[in-house]
Design brief:
Elements lengths: L3 H14 L2 E4 L22 H15 L4 E6 L7 H10 L3 E7 L17 H21 L3 E4 L4 E2 L7 H18 L5 E5 L9 E2 L4 H11 L3 E6 L9 H10 L3 E6 L16 H13 L10 E4 L8 H20 L3 H9 L3 H12 L4 H10 L6 H8 L1 H8 L11
Parallel strand pairs: 1-2, 1-10, 2-3, 3-4, 4-6, 6-8, 8-9, 9-10
Antiparallel strand pairs: 5-7
The protein binds alpha-D-psicofuranose and manganese (II) ion (2 copies).
One manganese (II) ion binds next to loops.
Length: about 400
């Protein structure tokens, strides 16, 4: 049986190399359909969004890549953008496609009944693969707003055929070292039937496509009370868990800070990740944030989120696996549950603070950010101009 000190050492080895990807859109202004509250110092372009992401990495040491969203982050020279990121100590991560913000997509993008609209959508997805080639990015993330609002509005089955056809074309274009991440979402903006509503649909399409197609689990995209950790266990076992889009929800697709609404759920998810080998080296499970900071400061919100993922991961890694397995074998329900709860109730903050100090980082990235003067400097530099935001 592993001693607590061995478990701690093993946990630290994993935590030191844990990589949490930041979304460029978290740094821009965002809001609800009611109001976008603009914040001072918010980036005006993709170059500045990457600079803000680099600040998060400088302080946490755990966020070395930033995901782009095209066309929100469209630039003339992607190789130059990747070089800019490198100069700041980070890299370009996942490329997120956007086939949901154009009038043409009123009835859908890749599932639209009009072949010309489908062509336009697929062309955009192919453009995103070009961006991956130019930036050295491995993953293409596809989320489709496609669906219908009324029974009879369109043929559900034909829409699946159109989806499969579009995915096959894009899959045929990605390189041997690239992956297609297919994200699902229960509802919104479509309210009657969404074309990729759940993990089963995403998984089935990935199986049809091939090994480079994997599922992205956005933690905010399920019905209330869905057992997300079961989905994680299933997909990992099947070798098709490609990535997480981490965030918290109370009601719908709230995009709140991960680990804020339900830290216990995040721990349960991370336990299944650990159990399924998803934190081992080179497993290909990408840990990404997909959040918006509507009212809280954005860089600090991202730092807090990275720390929340680290804390949940640390607790999951501290589970006494031998004690748990023994209790499960013996059918000792309470002992098994206690093995998980003991780990969950451990205060891992001192251990993570020590890990940061050992790496020359401040033990408290939030305080270090507040002290750094970064916000004051960028607020001054970025006066005027149009600030980038969700949809800008
Ligand atoms: C919309 O629901 C969404 O939040 C999806 O989760 C995507 O990953 C994200 O936007 C960025 O396109
Ligand atoms: Mn998402
Ligand atoms: Mn979402």
């Amino acid at each position: 049986m592993a001693a607590p000190s061995d478990r701690r050492a093993d946990a630290l080895a994993v935590l030191r190399r844990q990589h949490i990807e930041l979304p460029s859109w978290a740094f821009g202004n965002s809001g609800t359909r009611f109001k976008v509250f603009a914040q001072p110092g918010v980036p005006r372009d993709p170059w500045e969004k990457i600079a803000d992401a680099a600040q998060v990495h400088r302080l946490t040491g755990a966020a070395p890549t930033v995901a782009l969203h095209i066309p929100w982050d469209r630039v003339d020279d992607y190789a130059a953008l990747a070089a800019h990121a490198r100069d700041l100590g980070v890299g370009i991560g996942t490329i997120n496609a956007n086939v949901f913000q154009d009038d043409d997509y009123r009835l859908g993008s890749v599932t639209n009944p009009d072949p010309a609209v489908r062509r336009k959508a697929v062309d955009h997805l192919l453009e995103c693969v070009d961006v991956m080639d130019a930036t050295g990015s491995r993953d293409l993330k596809l989320w489709f707003a496609d669906g219908t609002n009324y029974p009879g509005q369109d043929d559900l089955r034909a829409r699946q055929d159109r989806l499969a056809e579009a995915l096959a074309e894009v899959y045929g274009r990605i390189g041997d070292d690239q992956r297609l991440l297919l994200e699902y979402k229960l509802f919104e903006p479509a309210f009657y039937a969404t074309d990729v509503p759940d993990w089963g649909t995403a998984y089935a399409h990935c199986l049809e496509l091939g090994e480079k197609a994997v599922v992205c689990v956005d933690t905010g995209h399920h019905a209330a009370h869905t057992n997300i950790e079961f989905i994680v266990a299933f997909l990992l076992r099947a070798g098709r868990l490609g990535a997480f889009d981490f965030n918290s929800r109370f009601y719908a697709d709230d995009d709140l800070m991960v680990g804020a609404a339900d830290p216990f759920q995040l721990f349960r998810i991370m336990y299944e990740v650990v159990r399924g080998g998803g934190t081992a080296e080179d497993t290909g499970v990408a840990f990404m944030l997909d959040q918006c900071h509507n009212i809280e400061p954005k860089i600090a919100g991202q730092i807090r989120s990275v720390m929340n993922v680290q804390e949940a991961t640390a607790k999951a890694l501290l589970v006494d696996a031998d004690a748990l397995a023994a209790a499960q074998r013996e059918g000792d329900v309470l002992a098994a549950n206690a093995a998980l709860m003991d780990a969950y109730n451990t205060d891992v903050r001192p251990m993570l603070a020590q890990m940061r100090e050992d790496r020359g980082l401040d033990a408290d990235p939030m305080a270090a950010h507040a002290r750094s003067g970064y916000m004051e400097r960028v607020t001054d530099e970025r006066r005027g101009g149009t600030q980038a935001g969700w949809g800008a």
